[in-house]
Amino acid sequence: MQVEEAAGILAKGGMVVIYDGDEREGEADLCFHAASASPERIQRLRKDAGGLICLALDGKTAKKFGLPFYTDILAASRHPIAKMECKKAAYGDRPAFSIPVNHKKVYTGITDIDRSLTIKKISELIEADPRDIRRRFVDEFYSPGHVFLLIGRGIENRHGHTELTLELAKQAGLVGTMVLCEMLGPGKALAKSSAREYAEKNGFAFLEGKQLWPK
Amino acid sequence: MQVEEAAGILAKGGMVVIYDGDEREGEADLCFHAASASPERIQRLRKDAGGLICLALDGKTAKKFGLPFYTDILAASRHPIAKMECKKAAYGDRPAFSIPVNHKKVYTGITDIDRSLTIKKISELIEADPRDIRRRFVDEFYSPGHVFLLIGRGIENRHGHTELTLELAKQAGLVGTMVLCEMLGPGKALAKSSAREYAEKNGFAFLEGKQLWPK
Question: Exposed e or buried b for every residue in B39-59, given b needs 16+ CB within 10 A?
Answer without folding.
Answer: bebbbbbbeebbbbbbbbbbb
